[in-house]
Design a protein that fits this description.
Layout lengths: L22 E4 L10 H7 L5 E5 L11 E8 L3 E2 L2 E2 L6 E2 L6 E7 L2 E6 L5 E6 L4 E4 L4 E6 L6 E8 L4 E2 L1 H6 L3 E7 L2 E6 L6
Antiparallel strand pairs: 1-2, 2-3, 3-12, 4-5, 6-13, 7-10, 7-12, 8-9, 8-11, 14-15
The structure holds nickel (II) ion.
């Protein structure tokens, strides 16, 4: 295997290397993810881009590292901030590091035993998501994209299905300009 290099913008997180395209998640891709289905329904016509991220296609074998950036745009669905779907790793015990490049956000994490952890992310701060913890990036700024750089063991795999079915135990809701509250998810399925 050869070395490789990708250039990311520190301004908006997007790839500056030609030919590298992000994966995009629009409102329509996030049905059942936001708790307020009625509010999501209202924005489906405009179908805004909620977040995008990179999968650079690093071979999924032990010892390799996958990496890229994730960009969550500012906005709310009802009171819930724009956020990623969130996932467990298929190899459950695989950790991941997120470094905040710009914006302001939260990393919401929970493990199968029901422990929730939340870390705020501001530029320069890096969060270690421990193994066994599902993780979701949440943009709590009203104006700026949340840009993070991530890296994890390339053979970890992604389990999106568990969160799609059950949701996270906690929701993060906007309560005002720059403020939020963490509440129990009424739709959480045991
Ligand atoms: Ni992950």
């Amino acid at each position: 295997m050869h070395s490789s290099k990708t250039k990311f913008s520190f301004k908006n997180g997007l790839s500056l290397t030609e030919g590298i395209e992000s994966l995009k998640r629009y409102a329509t891709n996030l049905k059942g993810i936001f708790s307020d289905a009625k509010s999501l329904e209202k924005i489906l016509e405009k179908n805004p881009l909620i977040y995008e991220f990179y999968d650079l296609g690093v071979e999924e074998k032990p010892g390799n590292l996958a990496y890229g950036t994730s960009i969550v745009y500012p906005g709310v669905v009802g009171k819930e901030f724009y956020m990623t779907k969130g996932h467990f790793h298929t190899v459950l015990d695989t950790a991941e590091v997120y470094l905040c490049i710009s914006g302001r956000g939260l990393m919401l994490m929970e493990n199968p035993e029901g422990i929730t952890e939340i870390q705020e992310l501001t530029p320069g701060e890096a969060v270690l998501v421990p193994g066994r913890f599902a993780h979701r990036s949440i943009n709590i700024s009203d104006t700026e994209p949340l840009v993070t750089f991530f890296t994890f063991a390339a053979d970890a795999g992604h389990d999106y299905g568990t969160i799609e079915q059950k949701g996270f135990r906690k929701l993060v809701l906007r309560t005002g300009d720059g403020t939020y509250e963490v509440v129990d998810n009424p739709n959480w399925k045991a």
